[in-house]
Amino acid sequence: MSSGADDRALQELADGARAARRFGLDTEFMGEGRYRALLCLVQLATPQTAGRAERIELLDPLEQNTAGAPLASILADPQVEVVVHAGRQDIALVRRRFASEVSNVFDTQVAAGFAGLGAQTSYESLLAELLGVRIAKSASFTRWDTRPLTAEQRAYAREDVVHLLELAAELERRLVALGRLQWAREECEPLESASDERDPRVVFKRLPRVRTLSATARPIARELVQWRERAAARADRPVQSVLSDPALMEIARRKPSSRAELEQIRGAGGGGVRRRAQELIEAVERGRGRPPEPPPEAVRAPVARPEDAPLVALAEALVRAHALQAGIAYELIASRADLQAIVAARRTSQREPDVRTLRGWRRELVGEELLHLLDGHLSLSVVGRGLKIARRSRP
Questions:
Q1: How far apart are the two ends of the chain, measured CA to CA in Å?
Q2: 72 - beta bridge partners?
Q3: By three-state DSSP, how is residue 277 classified?
Q4: Backbone phi and psi for residue 29, each to the nearest 5 degrees, phi listed first
Q5: How distant, in Å, are the alpha carbons of 211, 222, 256, 394 from that of 285?
Q6: DSSP E strand stretches across the chain
Q7: CA 74 – CA 21 distance, rounded (Å)
Q8: What is the C-alpha separation between 31 and 141, in angstroms, rounded?
Q9: Dihedral (C-alpha) 122, 124, 126, 131: value to the nearest 10 degrees?
Q10: Which residues pair with 24 in a beta bridge?
Q11: Beta-bridge partner residues of 57
Q12: Which residues does residue 389 pair with via DSSP β-bridges, in sequence order?
């Protein structure tokens, strides 16, 4: 999309989104071989309203004169619903590219999980099952960063949003009938803050065996992480291609002070690292100058034991029964790790673990009953082909 008439078209689409109080959004991007994914195309759709026809626009963020202000304004408007499908990456990309906040997200993949459909159901499957529409995914792995786009690519991009709003309307209708619409909206709220920004502090914590580093090696590793992030961003390359995690950890341990010492470290003698050898050594020196950093004390969570397995299986049966009855995908409610943490905490009389199954709508649906079950106040039995849940009388 260029300036002039196309900018006016985008503004008209934004006006239509406000009038309809919703619009559909999808993106195409390229992530391979880059520091962060490159946003290549934004597809936008508004529904038909009184006096306005349905409208689809393709916004090209690779053009320098792309006007993003109309899009940013409706992304941030809490009165306008942003409809996506599996949209975490889409939201993260447009937030960064257009420096915009995003509010009022409705994700059709999330919604499908509350409507008795799979939690990871694809867009194509939902269109076929709910609307009887079939689309061909013919251009999904083409080069979206090359210009001009082909007619096939443009047709493919339009097809990704042409039925999106109709799909969302059908899912909302079903969720209202099931009394689950608010739960689906609650589940979509975290998408509003989706981000692909990389936090060096988080990267450091995820280094392999980072807790084994000595107090003097930890600040060096932190400096190396920060250096690697800057170098990868400058070169627009994946961080592991600049310096691998194992090599970073070994450099932090050995603390090389010369090129010769650096080249003795496995994984640090390649061409890319060799070209940046002086920068690496300077990062090590900065780390040497920081105060020692003892590893933090480990927070000891209750450890799952073999004897927990029957209770975890019992808890899973309860959750699956409620999921089936409510028409909600089991995967949205609990994972095995959630149930193991709850069972282990109950066994050791520790406080409730901070797991999603015991928060919000999940606690309302099954979390409280799960705790009562583990405390011996509920019983499960097989009646016919179903599971019966009964409250046991207290002595």
A1: 72
A2: none
A3: helix
A4: -150, 165
A5: 21, 12, 9, 66
A6: 22-30, 38-46, 55-59, 81-84, 105-107, 378-383, 386-391
A7: 9
A8: 11
A9: 170
A10: 45, 83
A11: 44
A12: 380
Residues of the chain with pLDDT under 70: 1-5, 298-304, 393-395
Phi-psi region of 319 (alpha: psi -120 to 50; beta: other; left: phi over 0): alpha
H helices of 88-216, where? 88-97, 108-114, 123-126, 151-162, 164-178, 181-188, 200-205
Q: How far is CA 126 from CA 122, 161, 167, 368, in A?
A: 6, 13, 8, 32
Q: Enter the tokens of residue 33.
A: 């071989």
Alpha carbon distance 386, 250 (integer Å): 56
Which of 361-366's residues contact partners 24+ apart within 8 Å by CB, and which partners? 361/182, 361/183, 361/186, 361/187, 362/333, 362/334, 365/183, 365/322, 365/326, 365/328, 365/333, 366/318, 366/319, 366/322, 366/323, 366/333, 366/334
Kindly state the DSSP code that residue 49 receives in the 8-state scheme: B
* Strand partners for 383: 386
Q: Which of 85, 260, 115, 89 is nearest to 184 (CA)?
A: 115
pTM over 0.70: yes
DSSP of 284-329, one letter per residue? HHHHHTSPP-PPPPP--PPPP-GGGHHHHHHHHHHHHHHHHHHT--
Exposed, middle or buried, 347 (CB in 10 Å: 0-12/13-18/19+)? middle
Q: What are the CA-CA distances from residue 215 to residues 221, 243, 244 (Å)?
A: 10, 22, 21
Measure the CA–CA gap between 144 and 152, rounded to whole angstroms.
Answer: 11
